[in-house]
Amino acid sequence: MTPCMNITALSQRVTQPADNSQTLLNLFRQSDLRTPALVLSRSQISTNYHALRHALPRVSIHYAVKPNIHPVIIDELYHNGSNFDVCSAGEVNEVLKTGIDPATLIHSHPIKSRDEFDKAVSAGIELFVVDNAEEIKKLKHYTNKKLKVLIRYRIKTNTQAVVNLQYKFGCTTDEVLTLAKQIEQTGHQFFGLCFHIGSQCVNNENYIEAIETAHKLIQMLDMEGLNVQLLDIGGGFPIQYIEPVPQIDEFCKPIAEALDRHIRPGIKVISEPGRFISATSVNLITTIVGKSYRDGKIWYYLDDGLYSTFSGIVFDKCQYPVVTANNGEEKLSVLAGPTCDSFDVMYDGLMIPEHNVGDRIMFMATGAYCEVSGSNFNALPRPKYIVID
Ligand SMILES: Cc1ncc(COP(=O)(O)O)c(C=O)c1O
Fold this sequence. Notes:
About 30% of the residues lie in helices and about 25% in strands. It has helices at about 5-10, 20-30, 40-55, 70-80, 90-95, 115-125, 135-140, 175-185, 205-225, 250-260, 275-280, 310-315, and strands spanning about 5, 35-40, 60-65, 85, 105, 125-130, 150, 160-165, 190-195, 200, 230, 270, 280-295, 295-300, 320-325, 330-335, 345-355, 360-365, 385-389. Strands 1, 2, 13, 14, 15, 16, 17, 18 and 19 form a 9-stranded mixed beta sheet that branches. Helix 6 (about 115-125) links the parallel strand 5 and strand 6 (about 125-130). The radius of gyration is 23 Å and the shape is elongated. Pyridoxal-5'-phosphate binds next to helix 11. Pyridoxal-5'-phosphate (PLP) binds near residues 234, 236, 272, 274 and 275.
């Protein structure tokens, strides 16, 4: 059963007028607000960015734009000194609008079509990732420029991440040496190693194991005269949805220690966080557009659903904390979306006080892998962003 928070509980967390929660609450209560509304807090983006920088002082950040490519997020991060991780020509175009030097980007998609590869090289990207021999063959087409290439390896296929990113990508550690030599044979530069444990990874032991593996690989590559200049530790840093997760400093402390212990100072270390930066910077305000009583439960039909912002429930296996303004006896409830499809149900078995058509319900931490994977099924409108602070 999903716990529900009352808006007064949220108000109690508002400590100063400058706190963005106050603006959020005002919007929630504003009767003429057009919903569904994704409320994006600029200040929360920099707070999250600096929290991760503080937790991993040696590691520079390349924000992975895939969970949320909103221009305000890109702009805010750029002005805070972040770099970016991109995976497609569309992402490259968005990020380059900041004026950032393309040579500072990482293109982290291990398997790209020739067309995507061509566009990325033409745009000026120099740092790429591969995990197989077929991808390395594509490098031979680029003779005008020496590209820097990382090899993505996996440690094991079953990690404790909510979304396993080692299932589809990453070579085995046994393949690394052969692939590194193949990169050098194309005339490009084997530049280093990378891994991505998985998204919303709640177990920092996974990172430590991957860093220990990097250490062994670096020793082996050293003996073959192949110099590792960069280690990319991926993304995956967890945020709190319903279940508590450790504070980011606490979560990262053993990771930072493992880096200091195993990775020599001359090797630059970067990360590609997505969710940790964007998730808590956005909250969703919806309106109840319909209500019915079915099989002993109260059904509420909202103006946003599984085919739009709540697509994260399907693709990202997420449940977002629910906030209501109503008080009173909690009743067994269902929250469904606005489409005609019966699949469009987000929460079944939620205990909340009774609501009426026209009331608002808010969902927290809807800034990562939500709106980006939604559609306008039934030709319904997509939510609009409102940028605060
Ligand atoms: C290559 C790569 N880098 C970074 C990320 C971002 O991961 P997260 O949002 O978990 O930090 C992803 C997520 O899919 C990814 O595939």
